[in-house]
């Protein structure tokens, strides 16, 4: 059985196709120039040549554009077309056109990972707070124990040295008596000062009354 081989499209380089298009345009232009030189008057021929020069550029431009479009179509048509499965994989890998495309399993795994992170964060925070509270309680306990130990050591020293305790008691009694004495002194001084101000007030009051009485008596004598 003879199997027929698929026909391969013959493609030419873009440079060859562009040059071929230009040759066709030049040949057509040459034919039109020869026709003008044999059938028209010189003035009409000049006007026609100017018209062709102006519009021939536009025609040449659009023909070149059309040739380029044909070349692009041929190149694109020869590229291998991806299958639907490869399109889905590519879209999944690229994240899709409008957003990330995830399967339900991947979305569930993502949510589970997120929840696990949140739980771990909350657990670490709770452990940190508990450790901080335990350290604070231990610090207070150590401080109280040190205070009690210091008081016990002080009492043991006083018990071993009664003279120190007696000297301390005597000193305390001395300053207590001294404070009472100072308080009594200032109290007596205040009373004395108050009595003094009271006596001075009475003295100035009597002098003022005497002055007023003298002034009144002098006024009465002058009127008589």
Automatic annotation (TrEMBL):
Residues 106-148 are annotated as: Disordered. Residues 116-130, 139-148 have a biased composition (Basic and acidic residues). It comes from the Eukaryota. This is Uncharacterized protein.
């Amino acid at each position: 059985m003879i199997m027929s081989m698929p026909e391969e499209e013959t493609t030419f380089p873009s440079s060859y196709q562009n040059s071929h298009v230009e040759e066709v345009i030049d040949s057509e232009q040459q034919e039109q120039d020869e026709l003008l030189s044999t059938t028209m008057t010189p003035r009409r021929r000049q006007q026609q040549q100017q018209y062709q020069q102006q519009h021939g550029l536009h025609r040449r431009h659009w023909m070149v554009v059309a040739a380029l479009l044909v070349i692009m179509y041929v190149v694109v048509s020869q590229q291998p077309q991806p299958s639907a499965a490869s399109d889905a994989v590519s879209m999944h890998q690229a994240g899709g056109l409008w957003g990330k495309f995830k399967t339900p399993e991947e979305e569930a795994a993502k949510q589970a990972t997120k929840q696990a992170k949140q739980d771990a964060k909350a657990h670490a925070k709770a452990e940190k707070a508990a450790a901080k509270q335990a350290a604070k309680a231990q610090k207070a306990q150590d401080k109280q124990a040190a205070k009690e130990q210091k008081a016990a050591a002080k009492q043991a020293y006083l018990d071993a040295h009664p003279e120190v305790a007696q000297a301390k008691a005597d000193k305390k009694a001395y300053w207590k008596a001294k404070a009472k004495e100072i308080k009594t002194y200032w109290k007596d001084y205040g009373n004395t000062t108050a009595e003094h101000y009271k006596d001075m007030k009475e003295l100035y009051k009597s002098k003022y009354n005497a002055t007023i009485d003298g002034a009144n008596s002098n006024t009465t004598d002058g009127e008589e």
